[in-house]
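Hey, resending since the last one bounced:
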Amino acid sequence: QQQQQQQAQQPHRPHTHRNTSSHQRHGHGHNQPDLGLLEGLQSDVALVTGSSDKTLRVWDPSNGQCLGVLSDHRGSVKVVVNLDGANHGLSVGLFCTGGTDVCMWSHSCRLLTVCRRDSASSDVHSIIPIRNSRLVAASDACELETYEIHGAPSSSYVGAHDLRTLEPLRGHREPVQSLVALSEAQFASASLDGAIMLWSTLTLTCFRKLNWFESYQDPKSHAFPHRVEMLAVLEPPLSGCFVAVIHHGFAIFSPSDDAPLVRVRCAHASPVTYCAVVEGGAYLMTAATDGSVRLWDLELLYGGPSGPDAAMLSRASSVPHGLVHNGSEASALGDLGNMGG
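The structure tokens again:
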């Protein structure tokens, strides 16, 4: 009875599981994890993953051990964003998760606040922190959601922070596919119709539209031939520029120019689904629905006289050590092989 009285007096805590070496200990419906949730961490870094099973898992990346399971989301968790180091105006360590709802957590895995979204809305798939303690979120809608973080700068306790919904950002004609921060002053969003919109983090207004087509849908097939699958930010010496995956190819844009700096229309034989900047910004990797992965030399692609054909690495010796494993000489020339779909 004394334990029940003490539990009744404690603040509400999230339902939490904690893994031990050979068994799993279940929480008791409290709204905060055990204070010892991260005590088994062997390094200064923890990894947090989200899943369609409505849970977050906290991992020790040094040994792969799961330290705990947090189950506070009402639906799938589509995005986990670390707010540490971002210009959000708060000094405590925070991270944010999104899906059906948007939640904010302390680095000790304490749930600080939940912003309940309309149940009819599609899940949030992207979140970026911007200046003035604000967040921008994208879902499969034509509008961008904006939030403002309110809270005590030195506090990590429940109720000390709050997420307030601001006016949505409108302008896209089709669902938003990708959202990235370009710099402290700018961010970009791209949608199914191919439109790329550049926004000011200060005024939350769009100052440039790229890849914009008035007629953007094929009248017969109803397909979107200009659709942008994702955006990726480049590194020095191309800082501020970004890559847009467009149909079978990709393009490199600068926020200060309307036309792309580089356009590769047929990078793969099938639609490109993903790209990543690797090796300190020296190379771009692209992947397509046919399972192929290709490696591009950004210096040759951007500044070389020979164009895209030369930029896709043409010599096996040009491929950085460790990027190609067990591949034949032909597959290592620039096409890193087929992943089988």
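The first strand starts at residue 16 and ends at 19.

Sorry for the duplicate.
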